[in-house]
Amino acid sequence: MLEFNNSTPLTLGVELELMIVNRRDYNLTRGSDDLLLLIDRQPHGYDIKPEITQGMIEIGTAIHTHCSEMLQELQAIRQLLTRNAEKLNLGLAGGGAHPFQHWSEQQIYPKARYQLVSELYGYLAKQFTVYGQHIHIGCPDGDSAIRLGHYLARYIPHFIALSAASPFYQGMDTRFQTSRLTSVNAFPLSGCMPCVESWDQFNEYFQDMAKLGIVASMKDFYWDIRPKPEYGTVEIRICDTPLDIVTPTLLAAYAQMLARHCMEQEWRDISPAHYLTYSYNRFQACRFGFDGVLVNSSSGQQTSVQEDLLSTLNQLQAHAVALGCEAELAALRARVLKRQSDSQWLRDVYQDSGSLSEVVRRQSNYWMHDQPD
Q: What is the model's pTM?
């Protein structure tokens, strides 16, 4: 039986997976051990840990009620990471996928769970060298978490378009705004949560899957959104890691505003019919970003991701005021109106330089030093 550890509603935390690159040609490098060793010699209290391959590192924030506090913590973590990475002549970068690394060159981090994943999934484990942002939203109980998970599924294309930062993969322009999610899709337990209506029903589903030997823990589910019972949160897992340090807090603010709307309205409209368009809308956002076409499963009407996002942001004004997120709401609206995209920025750099190494050099400077140009 999974116990849901109730948490303060609408509290926030984020996790960011970051690239570790050399400063010669800016390919990925096996730098996580050296970097962690150097960082851990200094008392810091931050959540900084390895990820599945050695060209990755993950950072996580504490629990926050407001995104401005979260931004301050992320900036402090970045300062610590940057100072130590430079001592090792390493670069760190955001983005959803390294533009030209090859999965066959990656090394699985020597941790029991990662070794198990490698044995189970074969080459998919190394191919999973992609970089995402996860957003945690506090929930008062398991039933609320189930409702919130289903409610947020409608807005997954928004998070994809706002965070898309992986147009290049294996040295090629994929013509997608985010190529990262195709790596996630390959796992058999990816996709979306089943259409259960309560925490008890979810527990029944989990126990059935466990009895069949398919899962052993919640970590075995690679869903776009999943409950995280040990934290008392719902976890959004769909976003690419942004290129800068501010965007993660804007994405978290958007999730917080949506969650407040869901909880205040006591939303309960859980139905399999809502998932008829889920995969199609998700693909549209991955492929076309703000230009993607969304289909409303209830009305059949179609609208662009950009139009739908702007409409939703307008509806969240009162929640932004209540949460003290007016500045974040305004920044999100401005980005959507300008169609501001990390993927387009990366393509522009490549168009200007003709070099994917230069693309990574500049995106590394962007994340480490707030220098996009």
A: 0.96
